[in-house]
Amino acid sequence: MSFVLSEDQQMLRDTALSFAADTLPVAYLRGQRDAGRQGADAASREQLAELGFYGVLIAEEFGGSEFGMVGMGQILEALGRTLAPSALIQSGVIAASAIGMAGSEAQKSEYLPKIASGEIVAALALDEGAHFAPAQVATEAESNGQGYTLTGGKRYVPNGHEADVFIIAARTFGEAGDAHGISLFLVPADAGGLSVQALNTVDSHGAAHLSLDGVTVGPDQLVGDADKASDILVPVLDRAAIAQAAEILGSVQAAFDMTLEYLQTRKQFGQLIGSFQGLQHRAAKMFTDLEMTRSCVAAALSAVDDGAGNISELASLAKAKASELVHLVSNETVQMHGGIGMTDEHDSGLYMKRARVQEALWGGTSYHRDRYGRLGGY
Asked: For 60-86, how does the pLDDT look when each residue is reduced to its tens digit (9 = 90+)?
């Protein structure tokens, strides 16, 4: 396993860093928030798609580049540095992976080129409670002889407010908590009986609650085999956790760099505050945890591309470490900036708000620590 980027991967990283800094800086997110808008606008999505970012995990025959997770990780880290809102994880990682792994040829031909081109946003609608719990699906999918009728609801679907199509997890057998008996369905956002409630999220990236009241779907909208969605969700959610950890890495690096610069320029009592031993120790803690997490994320990204047998373990390790890290660094960033860190004019507050969402998305520290232990036989 090599943590050294290839020449092509480095070029992709450089392109993503330049694009994020020039086109989607923190000021972009602040502007969207101040204008009362959640998430990204259509123009920025088109620009991301033109750069090929949405097609990184999609096969060439369907309009993508099949560049791999290491490449996707570089893009997400770059976007994380500037808190850039995008549907890249939902659409370009999760939906593209689910359809690419389990979709029919017709579904792949219909949706993957549109995802790669940015024509549509696809979003996984999974959770129904306050916490990430993939098996706790109670939304019913009742067979009606010509397909299925979906009834239930989904809570906090990231990017759900801008999605054109949802991949909805519903139960075709068993009860909530059973891993077996879940199925995935492709449902257009304008389907009859589907209501989308847009949310104003604390991080200004946007999400939605879904309500399904007798939504009818045909058998051709089933992704993979009925009752066996867990076989799809495990590798897809592993990718989601790894992708989110990569984005977190970028946010943490930017917040740490901002804090370090402040320690080296701010004076109190005639001395640079960076000369105070207590603050040095706290900065050293952040730096060492950041480097450790970087290694965990790099290992997980490489494992996906290499088809390793321990992807799930590495995914949970990376997300647990990243969630813990972003909580620590976002707190320290605000505290070490002192009074100015508490003001809305300073960017530290934006990083903290995004951190609280990042650490919870696709499983927080507790979830992935527990999962890592169980996978290890503990």
From this structure: 999 999 999 999 999 999 999 999 999
Domain check: are 370 and 235 in the same one?
yes
**Residue 285 included in any domain:** yes
The dihedral through the CA atoms of 77, 330, 351, 118 has a sign that is positive
State how far the alpha carbon of 243 is from the alpha carbons of 75, 93, 322, in Å.
10, 8, 11
Rounded Cα gap, residues 247 and 270, in angstroms = 38
Q: Are residues 298 and 212 in the same domain?
A: no
pLDDT, average across residues 326-340: 95
Query: Is the residue at 157 inside a domain?
Result: yes
Structure tokens at 187: 């449902």
